[in-house]
Each structure stands twice: as structure tokens, then as C-alpha cells.
Specification:
The protein has about 500 residues and is an alpha+beta fold. The protein is built from 14 helices and 13 strands. Strand 2 and strand 3 form a beta hairpin. Belongs to the pseudouridine synthase TruD family.
């Protein structure tokens, strides 16, 4: 471009773009986004309805305009139900007020609507506060508070109420969902949209079509496909593609494998020795553990006090990061013929495969080691080059008893009418459900207190003696006699006037 003599020519100014780009991009290179005089994390309680945990986190990442990797949880919750759990957000320069308004989409709807209506798409967050450390998927202690579980079983059919009394004395086994192969084409009960997208990739090898069809809620698959897209369709860097999946979700695959092994060996133990008593070779605690290493924040004592910051918005005590107290493995022992009679089946534990745990004695211990070797693992060395894939072992009791179990019979006609009041409804001041004493169908409201690492699903399996998979339960609901009365509550109310 020509310019008059003596005048400065045209210039092009080049600036580094924000890392990550997009709405959730992080700060520019060499810059620090100010975050104010508060700790770097925000914790809040998430209530979700009929959404799995990763789907809910993906939704929050979009509404909060953050990277999904900035959100963390200490454990996952079932999809089918109304659940609550704590979530941490690495907030950058966001404030509690900003997060609450973004999650409730203030601007698109009013503040009045946000505090008087249910959360958008089955999601509500509450109880927000600043914290100096985030949550970790495994930051759970042995002595964590027990969980009160309430469950509603609809269209219950029994020969007599005496049968219900007998079933209430339930014993159940800890058994998370079995590991599912990541390369599976169709999973029972999977949404048709996901099936079509998976076929587009695994059958037609059409990456672009698979990405276009894959719902955003399917986090792991989308991460892998997007990684392959960035690599120009190259799929050889599978480890790199896996690393794009949010860390909490990746760790769940590790935990799923541990649970898979645990369940297989416990099933073998019950097949050989039964489930009524402890036997020689079983493992038990020498002393019940009182706690496990938890995230320790050296500044937690003054958590409510603002933190002094420098000109970059960073804490003046930032180098004192949250640390973990060293984990001391619990002391266990292998039972012999001399002391097995002193323990009950509820004392027996089984290790989750990993470091610092012992295998049971006798043939069962050999079977345990063979199981791991068959999957290419060395029972004596669980260290991996990628540290986050290193298996850290622990112990779980093979059988547990729920505490303070109680049940109440409810009557209803319309299956769409809520039979229990969720925390969100209480928060909003909604009236509790109005139940009909002369309803056509019977439901059971079951309450119980569960200990650490116990799945309510397994308690319900033992109580009902039916399969608990999503696929089976969906078919059971569709075939239920009460479905013919869906949406009739208003008509019935009019008839009763």
C-alpha cells in the first residue's frame, strides 16, 4: 500500500489470542485474569432430575461459559431420579453472583422466575460459596456421613402386606454398574440419536456425520470424535484422544474396571463359600478404619475470610496449595480356622485392585491374581507412566445392611403425579403432593440410611427381586397397568367436584 512521503505506512497489530478460544477461553498468554479477593474455587449444590452427572456438568459448562474440565465432583449419581451433590468450579474471574445468574440464565428470564420456578432443564444450583480447593472424584472418606435414600416404587403388586414385611429385612451387596466396552455399538436402552451417531462412526466411518449427530450430552464420545477431527481424521493417537475427556469422567473408567474385578471375585467367593458366614481365607479389618486421606487445605481455618491478592489478582499465599495428607492403608488380616468363627459375613471385605492392598488367602486369592493377569495387569505393580491411570486400591465390605429402613404405602391413579417432594420443591415453597387414599394403584415409599460405597439400586434389587437395569425398568414402566391413566389427574379432580 503506497503512502504519501514522510507519513508512516500502514501497520498490522498482532495479538495473541486467548488460549482455548470460544466462550470459555482462558486468559491471554502472559496475562492473569483478575479474580478478586476471594479463593479460586466456587462450590455449590447441584440438583438434577432425570439427567446423568456428566450430562448435567456439560449443560453447566455451556450455561456458565466455562470449560467442562473446570467443573469437578466427588462422586457420580444415578440418572433415573432426583439427586443432589456438591460440585466445584475453578472460577477464574467469575463471582458467586455471576455463576448463580448464569446458571439461572438471568436476562433470558427474570430473577423472580428463577426463585419461584423449577430449574431449567431439570438443573438447579444452590448453596454457593468460595473455597480454596476443588473436589476430586476420589476425595471420599471411610467415615463420611451416611446417606438417607428415599425411593418410590410404583404399581407394586403383592399377594399380601405380610410379603412386604418380610422383604423389608433386606441384605444387599455393593455392586456398581458393570464396565461397558467403550467400543460398543449399541447399549441397551440407549437413546436412538446416540445409536445413529455411533453407527455413523463405527460402521460408516463418517467422522463429520458422527460429530453432527452425536448429542452434546454424550461427553466422552464427543471429546474423542472432536480430537480425531482436529487430527485430520487420524486415529492412531488414541491416548491423546482419551486425554481430552474430562478427568473425572476418565477416572470413572478406572473405577469401573476396579468394580468389575471386585464384583467378579465377590461372586466367585459367594459361589464357593456361600453368603452366610466368614470362612478361612477371608479378609477382615483388624480395626475398623476411622478415616481416609482427604484433601487438606492449610488455609481452611479462615475459609470465610477474603484472601489478600497482588496486582495480578493472585493470592499472596498462593504457593501454599491444598495438599493431601498421606494415606495409611488400614490394617487387615486373613482369617484362619482358629478365628473365622469370631467374625460374621458382614465383617468380610474384598480389595479393589490397586496399590497397598492385600488379596484374600487360599484359592480365591490365586483366582484374583489370575483375573488381573488375564487383563494384562501385574498384580504386584499397578504403577503406570500416566500417573492418573495408576490403580489405587482400597477395601469394601462384601455385604451391608441398610439402617433405619422404613416403608409407607401410598395410593395413586395418575402415574405422572409426583409422590414425593423434592428438595427443590421445598426450597420454592411448593405444596407437597396430594395423594388419593382411594387411588387405583399402590406405591411404596422406602427410606433407608446407606453406608459408604453402598448402592441403593442393589437394595431395591434385593427388595423387589427384579432386574434393575435402565433398559428393563423402562420396559417395565411402559407395560405397567397404570400407564393408561396418564394425564388424568385434572379430569379426576373435575369428576370429584
Amino acid at each position: 500500500m503506497s503512502t504519501p512521503a514522510g507519513e508512516e505506512g500502514s501497520r498490522i497489530t498482532i495479538k495473541w489470542s486467548r488460549r482455548g478460544g470460544g466462550r470459555g477461553g482462558s486468559r491471554a498468554r502472559g496475562e492473569r485474569a483478575p479474580r478478586g479477593e476471594y479463593p479460586p474455587y466456587i462450590h455449590f449444590t447441584l440438583q438434577k432430575t432425570n439427567r446423568d452427572t456428566q450430562d448435567a456438568l456439560a449443560y453447566l459448562s455451556r450455561t456458565l461459559h466455562v470449560n467442562i474440565k473446570d467443573l469437578a465432583i466427588a462422586g457420580t449419581k444415578d440418572k433415573r431420579g432426583v439427586t443432589v451433590q456438591r460440585v466445584s468450579l475453578r472460577r477464574g474471574n467469575k463471582t458467586v453472583d455471576h455463576v448463580w445468574k448464569s446458571a439461572n440464565q438471568i436476562g433470558r428470564r427474570s430473577t423472580h422466575d428463577a426463585v419461584t420456578q423449577r430449574g431449567e432443564r431439570g438443573i438447579r444450583i444452590a448453596d454457593l460459596n468460595y473455597r480454596k480447593a476443588g473436589l476430586e472424584l476420589v476425595s471420599v472418606s471411610y467415615d463420611q456421613q451416611p446417606i438417607l435414600m428415599q425411593s418410590i416404587l410404583r404399581n407394586v403388586q403383592v399377594d399380601s402386606m405380610h410379603t412386604l414385611d418380610l422383604s423389608s429385612s433386606v441384605t444387599f451387596q455393593y455392586e456398581p454398574d458393570d464396565l461397558q466396552a467403550c467400543s460398543g455399538l449399541v447399549r441397551p436402552g440407549e437413546h436412538p440419536d446416540v445409536v445413529v451417531a455411533r453407527e455413523a462412526w463405527l460402521v460408516d466411518h463418517n467422522l463429520d456425520r458422527a460429530l453432527a449427530l452425536m448429542p452434546r450430552r454424550v461427553v466422552a464420545e464427543r471429546c474423542i470424535l472432536e480430537s480425531y477431527k482436529k487430527q485430520g481424521g487420524e486415529t492412531r493417537n488414541a491416548m491423546g484422544a482419551l486425554s481430552t475427556i474430562p478427568r473425572n469422567l476418565r477416572l470413572m473408567y478406572i473405577h469401573a474396571y476396579q468394580s468389575y474385578v471386585w464384583n467378579a471375585i465377590v461372586s466367585e467367593r459367594v459361589r464357593i463359600h456361600g453368603a452366610d458366614k466368614a470362612v478361612p481365607g477371608d479378609l477382615v479389618y483388624e480395626e475398623e478404619p476411622t478415616g481416609k486421606a482427604e484433601l487438606v487445605d492449610p488455609l481452611d481455618a479462615d475459609m470465610d475470610q477474603p484472601t489478600a491478592v497482588d496486582e495480578h489478582g493472585e493470592s499472596d499465599n498462593a504457593p501454599r496449595k491444598a495438599r493431601k495428607a498421606p494415606w495409611v492403608p488400614p490394617r487387615v488380616k486373613t482369617l484362619t480356622t482358629d478365628d473365622a468363627h469370631k467374625y460374621s459375613i458382614f465383617d468380610v471385605i474384598m480389595p479393589l485392585p490397586g496399590r497397598d492392598v492385600e488379596c484374600p488367602g487360599g484359592p480365591l486369592g490365586e483366582r484374583y491374581r489370575e483375573f488381573l493377569k488375564r487383563d494384562g495387569l501385574d498384580p504386584d505393580n499397578f504403577i503406570r507412566k500416566q500417573k492418573e491411570y495408576t490403580l489405587n486400591g482400597s477395601y469394601r465390605k462384601i455385604l451391608q445392611l441398610p439402617k433405619n429402613m422404613s416403608w409407607t404405602v401410598l395410593r395413586y391413579t395418575d402415574p405422572d403425579v409426583a409422590l414425593a417432594q423434592a428438595d427443590e420443591d421445598k426450597l420454592l415453597g411448593f405444596d407437597p403432593p396430594h395423594l388419593s387414599e382411594d387411588g387405583k394403584f399402590m406405591a411404596l415409599q422406602i427410606n433407608m440410611i446407606l453406608g459408604t460405597a453402598a448402592y441403593a439400586t442393589m437394595a431395591l434389587r434385593e427388595l423387589t427381586k427384579t432386574e434393575t437395569s435402565s433398559h428393563f425398568q423402562t420396559e417395565l414402566t411402559q407395560a405397567s397397568e397404570d400407564q393408561q391413566f396418564r394425564g388424568t389427574v385434572e379430569e379426576i379432580a373435575e369428576m370429584e367436584k
